[in-house]
Amino acid sequence: MAIDPVMVGVAGRVRIRMTDLNGSRMGFFVNADRGTLAPGTGSKRNGDGLTHDGPPSFGGGVFELEIRWTPQQGATRLSVSTLDANGDGRSSGDLGRFDTFDFVAGCEGRAYYEDLDRDGFGGERTRLFCEGDPGEGYVAEGGDCNDLAADVHPGADEPCNQRDDDCNGVVDDDARRRAALPGRRSRRLLLAARARER
Ligand SMILES: [Ca+2]
Ligand SMILES: [Ca+2]
Ligand SMILES: [Ca+2]
Ligand SMILES: [Ca+2]
User: Fold this and answer.
1) Nearest to 42 by CA among 16, 20, 76, 9
2) How confident is the model at residue 146, as a pLDDT?
3) Which residue, 47, 97, 154, 165, shows the most beta carbons closer than 10 Å to its own?
């Protein structure tokens, strides 16, 4: 994807280039969660997004789409759905794809982690927001090795449950250490008892 400098309130061009296409026909739908999109060559408005204006043909496995986008202050996600079709009038052999592109306008961008279980630590997925202003459900800290369990995150308690609760890559590490302590203590007591016997 190529894009003009992103400036709040100023219309710029966004060029989306799709490669490795196998079909002979291309369908697409583009929308943005904020700002204004305007159709370029070969596209038209459809609801809150843009779609192809007639079935566009292309060659060499590459298709280029140019649209115009007027950003608003803050973070925007541009979503692009495409259908790589072989044009036989049936859906078999057609390939659908979906991709997103994130931008910020009028601020410094920073990647924040998606935090599905809301334990304050994000998983693998990130999204670009303005520095200091992450969207709902996004946090600055990553490292959550299970983003569907709120009691599993870096720094969490590590009970002996055959699970890596504190996300340090070791299962039950702390629990194992704690389990080992009474053993050492009882051996010391045993030695002391033997010493008394003598
Ligand atoms: Ca989390
Ligand atoms: Ca978690
Ligand atoms: Ca652990
Ligand atoms: Ca554990």
Assistant:
1) 16
2) 98
3) 165
